[in-house]
């Protein structure tokens, strides 16, 4: 039967990228998505903004909601200091299987823990299951109607501390209006918008960076 797009993306990585070289994995995926088949990775333009925010935060404990093929996982993990840990959650088992291979190809498996399941089931278990007290950086890139409830759930589970940075993808396209209104109006967050474009297109999109004030 016909292969899936994530399978074809992984083949492109294994063909064009150098094992153990995260930048070549990033470039191979961007080339595939620009010249062969569009896919919903954060992409190179928004990816550069992600890089700058991760570098500024220099986090020890990272949570990513929405792994997909592991593109942003690789972008984040390649910037982490030794000993730092990234937990990434993926609901779709087929995506997770591809992402595991992409992360291994990049040589970043020691920094990354990929967990399969739903955010609402796993967020309440972060402490007892992973020994995580609080996260320093959270990247939201999963179901757009889960950004707000999951942010409230992370607050309620005590997973955010003074200074935790939330970075949300797709705040314009597909859009997360309820989440935007919340972080922009809440006295518990300092929020700012990074205008950009939907991955590999000219359509507007952007990232919202929100610092939890406690
Ligand atoms: O839908 C998007 N992402 C989410 C995919 C599903 C996540 C499922 N999932 C993963 C972890 C997890 C944990 N708990 C529950 C569910 C969970 C997305 C879409 C577009 C897009 C698509 C078409 C178009 F015309 C324009 C834009 C662009 C993006 O950048 C996106 O990120
Ligand atoms: Mg996205």
What does this structure look like?
The protein has helices at residues 5-16, 22-35, 43-57, 71-77, 93-105, 119-122, 126-130, 147-156, 171-175, 177-185, and strands at 61-65, 85-90, 112-116, 135-140, 160-168, 189-197, 204-212. With 214 residues, the protein is an alpha/beta fold. Helix 1 runs parallel beside helix 5 (93-105). The longest helix is centred in the N-terminal third of the chain and has 15 residues, at 43-57. The chain is globular, with a radius of gyration of 16 Å. Ligand 77Q is lined by residues 40, 65-66, 89-91, 118-119, 141-143, 146, 169-170, 173-174, 198-199.
Q: Determine the fraction of residues in helical runs and give it as a percent range.
A: 40-55%
Largest sheet: 7 strands, mixed
Contiguous low-pLDDT stretches (5 residues minimum) are none
- Report the average pLDDT across residues: 98
Class by alpha and beta content: alpha/beta
How widely separated are the two ends? 51 Å
Q: Which distinct ligands sit in these coordinates?
A: the ligand O=C(NCCCCCn1ccc2cnccc21)c1cc(-c2ccc(F)cc2)cc(O)c1O, magnesium ion
In angstroms, what is the radius of gyration?
A: 16 Å
Helical segment tally?
A: 10
The gross shape turns out to be: globular
List SSEs in N-to-C order: HHHEHEHEHHEHEHHEE
Physical arrangement of strands within the biggest beta sheet: 3-2-1-4-5-7-6
Percent in strands = 15-25%
Number of strands: 7
């Amino acid at each position: 039967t016909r292969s899936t797009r994530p399978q074809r993306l992984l083949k492109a990585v294994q063909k064009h990228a150098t094992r153990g070289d995260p930048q070549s994995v990033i470039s191979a995926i961007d080339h595939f998505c620009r010249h062969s088949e569009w896919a919903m990775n954060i992409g190179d333009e928004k990816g550069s903004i992600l890089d700058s925010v991760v570098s500024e935060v220099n986090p020890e404990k990272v949570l990513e909601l929405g792994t997909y093929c592991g593109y942003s996982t690789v972008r984040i993990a390649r910037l982490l200091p030794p000993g730092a840990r990234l937990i990434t959650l993926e609901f779709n088992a087929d995506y997770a299987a591809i992402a595991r291979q992409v992360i291994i190809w990049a040589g970043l498996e020691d920094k990354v823990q990929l967990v399969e399941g739903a955010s609402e089931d796993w967020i309440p278990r972060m402490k007892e299951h992973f020994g995580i007290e609080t996260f320093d950086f959270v990247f939201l890139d999963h179901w757009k109607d889960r950004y707000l409830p999951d942010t409230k759930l992370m607050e309620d589970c005590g997973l955010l501390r003074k200074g935790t940075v939330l970075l949300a993808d797709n705040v314009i396209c597909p859009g997360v209006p309820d989440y935007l209104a919340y972080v922009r109006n809440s006295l518990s967050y300092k929020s700012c918008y990074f205008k950009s474009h939907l991955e590999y297109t000219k359509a507007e999109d952007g990232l919202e960076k929100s610092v939890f004030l406690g």
